[in-house]
Structures are given as C-alpha cells and as structure tokens.
Amino acid sequence: MNYRLMFTLNAIVAAVFGALFLAASKSILTLFGVTDATVATLVVARFFGGSLIAMGVLIWFLKDVKDMQKNTAITLLAASVAGFILTILGMVSDKVIRSNGWVLLVIYALFALGYAYLIFGVSVSVKKKRR
Fold first, then answer.
1. Residue 76 resides in a domain
2. Is residue 128 in a domain?
3. pLDDT tens per residue, range 30-39
4. Could you give the residue ranges of the DSSP H alpha helices within the chain?
C-alpha cells in the first residue's frame, strides 16, 4: 500500500458518495434511515455532496504531490477518525442514522487504518554486511 493508491481510493469513494448525495439526496438519506427528510435536510445533504466531490477532486490532485503526501495523510486520518466517531454518535445517541450506518463505519475504519498504516507503519529494510 502506498500513498498514491490510498489517495486514489479515497478520492473515488468521496466523489461517488458526493455525487450520490448531490443527485439523489432523498434516496440516499432513505438508505440511512432518514424517513422524515425536510427541505432543509435535503439542502444540507446536497451541500455535503458538493463538499465530498470537492474533497475527492482535491485528494485526486494531491495524490501525485510527493512533498505533501504525509501531511495530507495525517489530515485524512484525522478526518476518518472524526467521521467514524460522528457516525457512531449519529447511530447511538441521536438516532439520526437508523439503518445501514455500518457501511459508513466500515468505510471510515478502513481509511483510518490505511492512513495509520501509511503514517506509522513499520518499514523493513535489510542491511548487507560488508565482507
């Protein structure tokens, strides 16, 4: 696993979810158990979709910038952990996310683990002894 692959996967997932929230807000919210979506809720979901698309495009462009990869990965690790925590809060305390919240939890957890591995992972190198 390298930064470029991880950023590419994250960019695609963010852009796809963003497009879905932007184009089919009511259907996507229904998948997560939001049955009483008001006009305000739909507008916020569309803003969220637009933000996800912007995030996906930004990550896509940053995947090839070697000087910023580690800092970007740290930022995306923090965002993944925050998203994981917010999803749990939405499922447990506020009951906003009533169904299929596990999908978000899995996505956030996988990205958090991937970025943690890239940032803190152990690299193995073999030194040759001189004779």
1. yes
2. no
3. 888 777 788 9
4. 3-23, 25-31, 39-62, 69-92, 101-120
Per-residue pLDDT tens for 16-75?
999 999 999 888 888 887 777 889 989 999 999 999 999 999 999 999 998 999 999 999
Query: Cβ neighbours of residue 34 under 8 Å, at least 6 residues apart?
Result: 41, 96, 97, 98
Residues 6+ apart with CB under 8 A from 36: none
User: d(Cα 49, Cα 40) in Å, to the nearest integer?
Assistant: 14
Torsion sign over Cα 60, 86, 94, 33: positive
Answer yes or no: are the C-beta atoms of 77 and 112 closer than 8 Å.
Answer: yes
Locate 6 and state its tokens: 């991880």
The structural domain count of the chain equals 1
